Amino acid sequence: MDTRQRILEAAEREFAEHGFHGSSLRSITRAARVNVASIHYYYGSKEALLRATLEQIVSPVNAERLRQLDELQAEDQPPPTVEQILRAFIAPDLEMIARLGTRGAIIARFSGRSYTEPETVVSRMINDLFAEVGARFLDALCIAVPDVDSEQLRWRLRCLVAIITYLLTAQGTARALLDAEDFETTTRRLIAFAAPGMKAPSVTAGLEVV
Amino acid sequence: MDTRQRILEAAEREFAEHGFHGSSLRSITRAARVNVASIHYYYGSKEALLRATLEQIVSPVNAERLRQLDELQAEDQPPPTVEQILRAFIAPDLEMIARLGTRGAIIARFSGRSYTEPETVVSRMINDLFAEVGARFLDALCIAVPDVDSEQLRWRLRCLVAIITYLLTAQGTARALLDAEDFETTTRRLIAFAAPGMKAPSVTAGLEVV
DNA sequence: GTCTATAACGGGATAGAC
DNA sequence: GTCTATCCCGTTATAGAC
Prior knowledge:
The structure is a homodimer. Chain A is mostly helical. Chain A has 10 helices and no strands. Chain A starts with a helix and ends in an 11-residue tail after the last helix.
């Protein structure tokens, strides 16, 4: 394997385990068994290395999400259900992780970690990378659940993102769901938990519901 | 205000904003306008400072959670519903945040951040602090939803924790829910989203559901 | 393209004056 | 109890030999 790719995979592992601030270029180059200067030669800076790592992982997943959503929204199709929309959002991610085996588990932690990174430059990267996907899926949900206003659906979609992120980051018992079972079961459990919440009646201020 | 407390509140702010690794003792003492050595004098180390900060915030919230659950499970009461259990879990947290105003917002980010901290010593602290609460609430849920096995309920409870964590950490649009609206509305929205998912039928491997 | 060496700096921790 | 000064280490980044 060439130096460039060795660096990228070592960076995945280090960032996944220790976060952005907790990883040093030295620990990455040590793990990749290359010299310290090579990161600057290939990527320019620590931040640029993170961006490269993130893009390589997220871009194909988001492309697949949009492809599946396009398929659901094809002219000759009936409007997609909430369950179908959620599946198109969740499955590409979990499928990629399952497909890559050990490296998939590392990537899972890496991306979960990146979502929750305090560094503002990281959250800006994430927002950039997810802007289109977020807007498209929210639109689809608004059509599938016309009774709930879009502001609350946006918030509920964020709840789903939160769950996925947590699932990816978790190291202990929660990780078992990614390792032990096939991604199809995990996908179904996520849909089973989140879909009813998406369809629940709007909650407006001042109205006693519970 | 005395030096000890000044350090603690500055640490909340710094850790909330930049995470554990991203905060330096120097930035904390600068914000608290005390000298660098005082942290070691009062707390011993950076790690011990984090633990002190975390405990001061989390302990009263968890005590209140258990108190409310005790009340629901009193002998003369009917067994609590899922909605009641979730409320006892969610409300003490959001109520404290709302009550503290500006500092509440900082504390919200701080605790959300701590949950997702890569540092293993931090996640051990969190696990310690939440062991009892987690076990008690899981037991209550198992009784309220007897049709779903406890392993899946444990996972669904984690989903709720994930959502709360994300909500607390979020800085942008999601934060609006903590600032703009009263905590009672946020509590009801959370319950509305999560309760149906808790009660959803079990998903077992190999069974085609969706 | 790959390496060593080093610059320039900031980190946590501590000793010791007051 | 509070401060200054300092130790010693690890950090990112770069210069320059090969």
